[in-house]
Structure formats: C-alpha cells, structure tokens
Amino acid sequence: MLVDVGWLDTETALVSVRGDVDQDTVEELNAAVQECLAGSCARVVLDCSEAPYFDSAGISALVLADRMAARRGAVFQLMGVASRLLKLLELTGLDQTLSIADDIPPASAVTAPQTTGMATLTEWFGQAPGGGSTDPESADEPPGSDRLRALIESHEARKLRRRQNLEAARAKLDSARGPVPLID
User: Fold this and answer.
1) Cα-flanking dihedrals φ and ψ of residue 85, to 5°?
2) How many helices, marked H, and strands, marked E, lie in the chain?
3) Which of 12, 49, 86, 156 has its CA 20 to 30 A from that of 175?
C-alpha cells in the first residue's frame, strides 16, 4: 500500500491510499493521519478511490482517524469510497457516523464534528460517546478500541484454528493413504 499526503489548502490535508488497507499496511495510514493532525490541520480527507480492499484493521483505522480528528476539533472525511467498502460501512452502521463525500467538498461546506450520530459508535463499541480520556495526546486509541481489538484477535484466532484443522486433516489423509506402491 502507498500513502501520499498532500495539502488542498492551508488547513486541509488530502491523504491518498493506493492498495489494500489491511493489518499489514494499516500502520502507514495511521501514521499519515496522525502526522496531519499533529499540525494545524482542520480537515483530513482520505481518498479511498484506489484502495480496493479494507479488512477489519482498515475499518478500525477509519474509526480511529475519525475519533482523533474529533478530539482535536478537526474533521475527518472519506471520499472515493468503493461500493464494497461502502457496504461494510453500512453493515456496521459507520456510514451514519463517518463523513463520506463523493468529491472533495469545499472547506466552507464542512462543519465541525457533532456528537449526534454517535449512538452508532456506542452500539458498536459498547461504550458511551466521549468515554475515555479527553486529553488530545491520548487520542491514539478511540473509546472501545479494546473491544474492537479483542474482536480482531478472536477472528485471527479462528483463522489460525481453521488453518491448523486443515493441516491436521491433510496429514490424516496422507497417513490414511499409506505408502504409495512402486510399479515395476
């Protein structure tokens, strides 16, 4: 995955992602968003038009970016969202929480983050909006990230068990076949 950061104006950063956003590449995205928010950035626009795949770690990064921006009084927006990602956001209810635009809206059309719509995050994370620290320096993790991390780890553990079961079944099948007779 490639991440490019550019500036649309003095207060708006454009983060462009090319390639899959998954557990192996998500740190690059997190670092780019954090770098933008560390300065005087009032708005971060994430261009997803060249990112065909987001796994659960990628979705988590979107939530994290939105929470970090909100805690700093900035706006986080998605643009160029593919239908597959939009479907995931709809299934999780995050389409009601995250700001999604078809194109880059002008800065005058952007409003500061509101607390309305946070009920979806409450349901998703099982924690009240604004829970956790209000210290901007501790915005590295959104409220409920422990639960999300546990869900991701649980998913990874299930994948590992399936892989181990498959390997065991293959070994059992190979041993059941016995030695292959040589034909003279």
Assistant:
1) -65, -40
2) 5, 5
3) 156
